[in-house]
């Protein structure tokens, strides 16, 4: 990891004898970046030389406004005192952006020792200036008397340690002006739940976190990103949710769809990626609700051998999205999916018309009966359809395994739908085969 410490302060408040200036004056601010030079110093001297240089500049800054303080270091226990000093300096200098981007050293077994963020150094006046907080590889354990972060706009947390559900709920509940929140590899082994309304939150990302449920009250949320195991997600009152990108690792498609319908009913654009997928043999979801605003859907499915005969059942999702205009279904399956002759026929699907659907794109097409019947069902029940694209490329895997691409099979697969689709598509609709 390349170690550096970057400081942005008032113009003229930095002694230019220390450090290396990067860039120019911007908005009357001067930015300095301090980088340890691996060619000049070796071994443990790297971090110490950097610390000595920075400490000298921090003394020059004392009592003056510093806009940003960013620390990016490979963490060692001997740095705790200096990081505490950096926090103390940032708070006293009314810093707006504080970033501790720490990484574990290679000799830390299973990343057992984290830097403990010094909440005790923060008081009501000092935290009122903080707008952005980024912490990585940090033990995040606020004391019971912590005053909160009332003016924080952005919170970026990565690889937290020692944080409980209640800790995080207390912190987030105090961030009444929070607009942007990211949690990556923050393992609670419990629910991620915030009861207090976060009325300014418009971006939420939760990636690879060991949690059991997500529940937020965020009326202004516009973007939500989740990647992890299948869990319930409840975004209360998120009536402005424009984009949701959901990746579940292990789920039954119909269960996942019903859960999202209950927790994100007002989403407008949805990407749903299900790895280790299972499909149920039923045409409808166990839900009385529909996606009332959903216009664009991308579904990415890893189809196993056991589910070749259930492909057509993905229409159960379309039946709860009556206003859908654009649909993308990206199939990824094993070699036995080619021309699989298993599963029901479209005549078994209960009647349903997709009156708003204008554009459908299917990739990973293998000429399997379920895929063919799905396309025929759409063509026969979407009177406003304008464009149909059928592509044999598996978007998620063909780039990784180019030797498995079979051009001759691709052509034969497309021939199975070319004529039947042209016969059934509405007048003027365009068909693209690739």
TrEMBL record:
Gene3D superfamilies: Ribonuclease Inhibitor
Domain At1g61320/AtMIF1 LRR: 57-395
SUPFAM superfamilies in the cross-refs: RNI-like
Pfam families (alphabetical): LRR_At1g61320_AtMIF1 (PF23622)
UniProt name for this protein: At1g61320/AtMIF1 LRR domain-containing protein
